[in-house]
Amino acid sequence: MESRELVYFVAVAQERNFSRAADRLGIAQPPLSRAIQRLERRLGVRLLERTSRQVSLTRAGEVLLNEGRKALTNLAAAERLTRRAGREPRLVVVTKPAGDAGLLEPILARFAAHPDTVEVEVLICGIGEQKSLLRDGTADVALLRTPQTDLSGLATEELLTERELVVLPRTHRLAGRASVRTVDLADEVFPRWSDESPGSGPVITDTGQVAELIMLGQITAVLPESVACRLGPDLIAVPVDDRRTTLLAAWSEERRDRALAAFVRTAAEVAAARSTADALTGA
Amino acid sequence: MESRELVYFVAVAQERNFSRAADRLGIAQPPLSRAIQRLERRLGVRLLERTSRQVSLTRAGEVLLNEGRKALTNLAAAERLTRRAGREPRLVVVTKPAGDAGLLEPILARFAAHPDTVEVEVLICGIGEQKSLLRDGTADVALLRTPQTDLSGLATEELLTERELVVLPRTHRLAGRASVRTVDLADEVFPRWSDESPGSGPVITDTGQVAELIMLGQITAVLPESVACRLGPDLIAVPVDDRRTTLLAAWSEERRDRALAAFVRTAAEVAAARSTADALTGA
DNA sequence: CGCACCTATACCCTGCCGGTATGGAGTCCC
DNA sequence: GGGACTCCATACCGGCAGGGTATAGGTGCG
């Protein structure tokens, strides 16, 4: 099976529409139809049920969509890793906006002095993209927060655990509380951090929206302490007693190189130092 | 990256020779050279160092060989699983000659009566091929023996543990012993069960060779009891006290379907019954 | 120095891949 | 119910990728 055919099939299977898929692929619709027909012929299996009104997946089509996506991810990873191996060694670290709890800068400073240091590129990606960037080889290490749904294939190191705070407008009924518990928040509207994530509120596409929407009373948000403190003076942040979040360093479990190991170790050291400092300050 | 290019590269990287690789791929050498050049150009990385006398891998080439093989295996698995999903559900069970300890027949009989039964195809493969057949989706479940070098990605269930016996010609110095230990066999010549396996003796390509070679005094072999007993009356089998082997059912850890689970469970039941019977007979 | 071996280049040809135009089936809506 | 719309399939055509043969060029060996 040619990988291009598989890319085509995945596009059609996702769009459930030949014309839109062709559009996305940057080719015309007829060649796409033929490519899928050829693929079906070669596999000896019907992948799609088409009527003139809708396209649906057969059992075999579902299998190929799932397995094929994995295979294509692997192929992309092989390509990226190969490209990287040909260049100067460097690390790509990926985080999301405000997702590093302020640790990244000291980590980079300390790592630069490490004997196994290499050049580091920092990538700030959209919400929920980090794991796929790790898996396809674009990034070497990510800063993630627990809880995470699917960490398969990734190795992790816990960096630090933070309180979580609910962020509210000044006028909110809970704004005067010294602390709250999760049950107190049962009636609140929380944003959905990505298209797929559960929740009742609006989908967040830009982090700047969050403070805005909270101020307007549209939503509330529960955020790690390091993030909540930076939203601005017009919002009240109240600790949620029974919630904690942990910042993780994560990387592909198969990767074994000195620079990566050194980076993770450095990150853990910086985080440990920070935790100790916080404990002293808090006390 | 097109999968065909990757197949070509892997062939060259393994053969370390364009002409032989082209031969194996069934194409001429010049198109192969061009394909590799194109791949290198597209990746922007040199993969192979060629002199007119030898081809060697660059760092990037090694990465692509390793990662690419994985990706191609996944691609093949996606293809096979898709093909299978389009047909009647069935299980492919793979074992090697005499590798089932006589369990397969009763397992199949019992499985046929199971509520979740499906058609079963039995594949008897060459030595050392089982794991790759599982990984590329050709087979659903394999009967393997411990010790095994690399079971990553596979789930296993222990079926039964057997004694191992050393098989000797009648005239052998140890032929009269009631039992031996591994240290007693230090001077013996053992066959190599595949091209890669360690050992001093000849490479076995056909199981029929083994009895033959033992009879001629060329080698000795340590085999599971169930196999050793069937080599014929002209050979003496002496128990090796300090060696045991376990028969495993193994399958891809990602697979989750009722028929597969039912098969493994049935296999375990049959094996348990056999073990009990043996214990009674032996006592 | 010639021979054997191996890869790269030159050149040709076939067939695949992609494009445009159009057909035909089903759905929506007035 | 008919026209318009949507959507996939078919027909046909052109360009180029990919494969073949012949051969050049470099290197180790006797």
Automatic annotation (TrEMBL), chains A, B:
Residues 1-58 form the HTH lysR-type domain. InterPro entries: LysR_HTH_N, LysR_subst-bd, WH-like_DNA-bd_sf, WH_DNA-bd_sf. Keywords: DNA-binding, Transcription, Transcription regulation. One of its GO terms (cellular component) is protein-DNA complex. Signal peptide: none annotated. SUPFAM superfamilies: Periplasmic binding protein-like II, Winged helix' DNA-binding domain. The keyword Cytoplasm does not apply. This is LysR family transcriptional regulator.
